Every structure is written in C-alpha cells, then in structure tokens.
Amino acid sequence: xxxxxxxxxxxxxxxxxxxxxxxxxxxxxxxxxxxxxxxxxxxxxxxxxxxxxxxxxxxxxxxxxxxxxxxxxxxxxxxxxxxxxxxxxxxxxxxxxxxxxxxxxxxxxxxxxxxxxxxxxxxxxxxxxxxxxxxxxxxxxxxxxxxxxxxxxxxxxxxxxxxxxxxxxxxxxxxxxxxxxxxxxxxxxxxxxxxxxxxxxxxxxxxxxxxxxxxxxxxxxxxxxxxxxxxxxxxxxxxxxxxxxxxxxxxxxxxxxxxxxxxxxxxxxxxxxxxxxxxxxxxxxxxxxxxxxxxxxxxxxxxxxxxxxxxxxxxxxxxxxxxxxxxxxxxxxxxxxxxxxxxxxxxxxxxxxxxxxxxxxxxxxxxxxxxxxxxxxxxxxxxxxxxxxxxxxxxxxxxxxxxxxxxxxxxxxxxxxxxxxxxxxxxxxxxxxxxxxxxxxxxxxxxxxxxxxxxxxxxxxxxxxxxxxxxxxxxxxxxxxxxxxxxxxxxxxxxxxxxxxxxxxxxxxxxxxxxxxxxxxxxxxxxxxxxxxxxxxxxxxxxxxxxxxxxxxxxxxxxxxxxxxxxxxxxxxxxxxxxxxxxxxxxxxxxxxxxxxxxxxxxxxxxxxxxxxxxxxxxxxxxxxxxxxxxxxxxxxxxxxxxxxxxxxxxxxxxxxxxxxxxxxxxxxxxxxxxxxxxxxxxxxxxxxxxxxxxxxxxxxxxxxxxxxxxxxxxxxxxxxxxxxxxxxxxx
Length: 732
Fold this sequence. Notes:
The protein is an all-alpha fold. The chain has helices spanning 24-31, 36-43, 51-78, 81-86, 88-107, 109-141, 148-169, 186-215, 221-242, 251-256, 258-282, 288-303, 305-314, 318-340, 346-352, 356-370, 382-410, 415-424, 429-441, 445-458, 463-475, 479-489, 497-509, 513-526, 531-543, 547-563, 572-588, 592-609, 612-628, 632-649, 652-668, 673-686, 693-708, 713-718, 720-728.
C-alpha cells in the first residue's frame, strides 16, 4: 500500500471513532509490525541453527501471505466493472506495456536489469509509504488532530529512513548483473546516510513528542509501534553499516526476504478489513475464507504458472523468468496500489477512518456505485464455478510442485534430491549449479565442468558460476579453456578486479602481452589498492626494459604494502626482490642515488628478517651496486660481510659464486693477485663435486690468474685458509 492515507482531511474525526481495526493484539503485532524484531532475529543466518527449515517456512508463507497481497490489489481494482473503468490506465494500458516489457526482458538482459533495479529501489519506498500511511490512519482514528508542521516532521523522518537505504543501495559499483547502481562515491554515500540518520532522529523526535504531548502516550501506542517498525526495517541496518558493524546488505534482501513477508501481512490485514466493510455496506455478504482462498489462488496464478511454462516451452532458465515476473508484478502493484489507496477517495475515508455515523451517510452512495456491478469477472453461473474450481486445482497442484522443487533445492548436498529436482524442471540453472557443486565435492572433474557449462548455458549472467568454472579450469591447468572462458565471460558479466587480474595472467600464458596490460589496467581502475596487480604490471614493463614505466607500479606496490597489516604483507624475500628490481630500474634510468637508497632498504628488510641467506643476498646486491657506481671500498666491505654469512649458511653453490665475484672485485680494486687466486681456488673447491657452467667459468678464470703468478701458486694452495682470511680482513 503506497502511502494509503497520506492526504489530510479538512474535517476532524469524531471522538467516537474506534482506534483499533480488528483488535489491539492483531493490530499491533501485524498491522503495526510489532513482530518485526523477533522475526528479523529468527530470519538472521547468524542466529538460526536451522536455516533450511526457516527458508522453507518463509517460502511457504509466500503462498499464503506474499503472493496474495498482490492479488488483493488486483481484487480491489479489477473486481467490479466500475473499478476496472475507473483505473483503466493501470488495469489495461499499463498492464499491456508491462507484458511487452516482460517479453523483452526474457531475451534482452539489459531490460531485465533495468526493471529489476527499479523493483529493488522502489520496494522499500513502497514499504515506507505503507508504514507512513498506517501511522496517519491510526493517528486520525484516535481522534488526534495533527497539524501541518507535525505531519511534515513525521513524513520527513519516514522519507529520511528510505533515503538512507537508497544511498546504501546505490553507493559504489554493483557486481550483481541484475542490479544497476548509480555509483555514488563512497564518501558521499556515507556522509549522506549519516546526515539522514540525524534527520530521522531529529524530525521524528519532534513530531512524536508533539503528538504525545497532545494525545498522551497510550493514545499514540499504535503510531509509536509503527515508527519503531520503520526504525527496525530501515534505520537500524543503516546505523550498523555507518558504524561498520556490518559491511553490505544486498538489495534483494529488502524486497524478497522477511521484510516482504511482514509488509505483505500488514497489507492483507488492512485490505481485508477494507474489503470486509465495503462488502457489508453494499451486500452484507462477507466471508473471510472465500476471500482468503481467492487471494491465495490468484496470487499463485500471478507468480507460479508463468515461469514454469516459459522455462518448459522455450528452454529458458526458470529462475531468470521468475525474476522477470517478480519485478514486473511488483512494479504493476506499486503503480496500481498508489492509485487506488488515496484518502481523497471518499469511499476509503468512509470505510477506514470515519465514524459509523459518517459511514451510514455514505451507504446509499456506495450502494449506487455497486449496483449492478457485484458480479466478478468470471461470472457466477455453475459452469463458471466449475471452471474456477478446475483452474484452482491446477494452480494448487502447480504450487505444490513449485514448493517441492524448492524443498529439494534446500538439500543442496543430496544428489538424489537434486536429480529429482532437475527432472521436475530441466531448465533451472540453480538446480544445475547445485548439481555441479555436489559433483565438484566428489572430485568428478569432467562432470563438474560440464554441469557448470550447462548451468551457464541457461544463465550466462551468473557471476558466481562464471567465476567458479574459471577457477576450476585454472586450478586444473586447463589454461587454454580458461582463457577462452574469460573471453566469453566479459560479454555477460562485469569482471571484478581479481577476474581481470587472472584474465591478464592467462593472456601472458599465450604471449598476449598487450591484452594482459589492458586487463591489469582495468583491474587497477576497479581496485587501485590491489597490490599484486601493480606487481604484474611492473614486472611486465621490467621484462620489456621499459624501466621508467615499471618504476611507478613498483613504488605504488610498496606504498600499498606500508598500509597493510603485518599478516597481509608479502614475505621478506618477496619484498626484497621487488625493492631490488626497483633499484635496478633506477640504475637503468641513471638515478644512482635512488638506486642505492632502495638497495639499502632491501638490506634493512633482510636484517630485520634475521634470515642469513637473505641477508647475504642483499649485501651482495648492494655491493654490486656500489661497484657499478665506483665505490669499491663499500663494495669490498659488503662482500666480506656476505662471505662470512655464507660460511654459516653452508650453501656451497651460493658461497662459490660469491667468492668468485669477490675475487673479480679485488681484481678491479687492484688487490694482490695472491688474494684474488685464493678467492678463485676457494670458489672452485666448493663446486668440485658438481659440473656446470659456473665451475667451468671459475676454472677458466683461475687458470688465467695462475699464469701470471705461477711461482706463487703452490704457496697459495698450501696455505689457502691464511690467504682467504687476509682477503676477508682486507682494509679497503
């Protein structure tokens, strides 16, 4: 019900008007939403120990609560020729337009995304409008005169509660292919919600205090409960988000979850009362059970047959078709509901708010209105009744099948249940997804892949399935298939930063470097704080010797690492390799000071890690850099420290290479050839049990040195340790 009683009446309500609609308990629990807190707690996945049972209960409730509440509006607008004609724009022309939209939405995803987003954005406004309308109804039924200022204050509070949710929905980008976001920046979105929260508290407190002061707390009990319901439905989730108690609430939860059930029950509560009074005024022939049966059967007819027929006749995904029907029926409901529940319609005011005395004055007018229009659309003959009974039976059977399908789906690890659900409807992507997950758990690779492909054939816009299949292909090293899968993915879904990163990595597997760069750039655009993407781009430019481009990405990576917690940071070895590559980039771009700065930073990280091998590695790299820029003294000292650490590490290959390079450094520093020969002999001895290029190069270089000091060779060999110690203690 969209703001059903939101227009002020110039006439005051007589004091004899009853406050309650049915009775205080029903009115407060259902009409005012006093059951909101316990139901919301019960429906919470963090509280419930039996989520499958609750899901089944709420899905069953949709048959007797959610679906019928849509039918209640249809009953109200289409029930008589007079009403049908009065709302012809909505009952005929709008219906035709929405049917056409439904056809397009089944085969054009963008249309579906638009109408589904409209539905999700509009539904909380619809809930809010109904709460505000009921607040005003109870206020006026209690004979409370609400002035324009107080009414405006209350309305602003309700409006603020909706806008909080609106900004929550449309802040940031949407990763849901069925939901479009306005993309409001996070800073603006959070600031707006905080401001609206203050607005809700201030205007609501002002309006309520003014009304309580005028009428008393007891008289305002029903409006106060409705206001608390509005707080629980809209404001509390926003408050938890703003204070970072929860991160994100999916839009669909507000439109299809427990709030929809409570809203629908609230709607049926007031519409049944209205229809009952209307019937008694005109025909005095009202029975609750036939009315309820009409709404239940009609609600099933609205939601259930369409998706089942379309999925079977056109091999179309059942779940997607259900989304189309849900969105369009809701939009039709919102528009029609807003037209038929207006206080400016005297019939509504007479039946819901005015006193019995005022109502009696309207009976004759209402009788004239309904004269000759009491027959329902399908007539009242025996044959018409038999047709209605037959259709009702078919619909109830179909509803039972639909409920059975849902029950089978809840047992998402039971292969036999899921197989039976697939037999009920082989064109249901959700069933095929559950089957794929079960097969994945049983390590049946080919069947798992085929099951996911089958689900994606029905619904290629399923983000989770697209990601799951890509991950399975990558994990099993089927890179070619994974690469082709990613190429198809981008036609259906918006990839997130991780997906673009992986797509780029796969592209490099097939030497598509330019593609990889563009994919990684998109990943950074989506998430500039994803440090690993900066590394991939930096390393790519490093390999292409485009050092100036690599520098920016390496430095961005290091800046992001500083912001990370200790647990999130790369290992010291990974970090040192990045820092040393950055140092090399500055070497290649003729920036010696910055090159040395980063090499020293790498050494500092190594020393902090207390890893001797890593420390030795960093010392050598810094020493090599000092040698390159002509500071041989510091280079010699660096090698000496590294070689002492090598002796403790006992890695012959690393030590051999370091001794060999130290010997070459001593040659460059014009040190004694005896010390140089000692370094080469030590390196050769460490690799004597291995064969390879390193040993061959060391031996060849050693032979050249020996020729120059042939007489001293034996002396060095006999007293090698002494000469090595002299080399290690050499003062530059």
